Amino acid sequence: MSVVFLDVSGPAPPQVCWERYAVPAVWPSWAPQIHAVVLDDIPAEAWHRSERVGVPRGVGPFAPPLPAAWESLEQGVAVPQPAVRIVPGLRGRVRALVPPAARFVVTAVDEVERTWSWRVGVGAVRLKLDHGVDACLDGGTLTWLRVTAPGPVIRAYAPLARAALRRLVR
After folding, report:
1. Rounded distance between C-alpha atoms, residue 61 and residue 82, angstroms
2. Tens-of-pLDDT digits for all 170 residues of the chain?
3. What DSSP assignment string belongs to 83-121?
4. 40 neighbors 104 (Cβ within 8 angstroms)
5. Could you count the other beta carbons within 10 Å of the beta carbon of residue 144?
6. Alpha carbon distance, N-terminus to C-terminus of the chain
7. 3-class DSSP state of 132
8. Rounded to two decimals, what is the model's pTM?
């Protein structure tokens, strides 16, 4: 196994970037390698709760973000649709434009530190991905990714991951 560390900074506020990570329905909007996210049985704690005051909401779990909802997310305003958030144990599949879909399980989430980890697999190929969102002094965000996988997989995946991170922080 090999490990690569990627980091990218951009002007989007840290909370907006975190919400882009935390709501799987939004992943296709910034990760060009993800065409769709299909969730398995959803743990009850993954449903966004209305009592989470001050946290911008994403969009529903099965529909792509609507422009009005995305503008609301950008501005940090609550969007009325329910949202499924990443929590440990959340499972599903990420689909690319071409099959096969990659199965995933979220293994750790720290909402306060804005970090999360997941394992992704296609056939015998397995990746472990650790993500984080840090505030920059200028109000923007530094986001980082540590990928643990076989060397050839990392070499193929790193350019896609870097492009996704750039879009995440825009």
Report:
1. 8
2. 999 999 999 999 999 999 999 999 999 999 999 999 999 988 778 776 533 333 333 333 333 343 344 444 444 434 435 689 999 999 999 999 888 999 999 999 999 999 999 999 999 999 999 999 999 999 999 999 999 999 999 999 999 999 999 999 99
3. -B---TT-EEEEE-SSSPPEEEEEEEEETTTTEEEEEEE
4. no
5. 16
6. 31
7. strand
8. 0.79
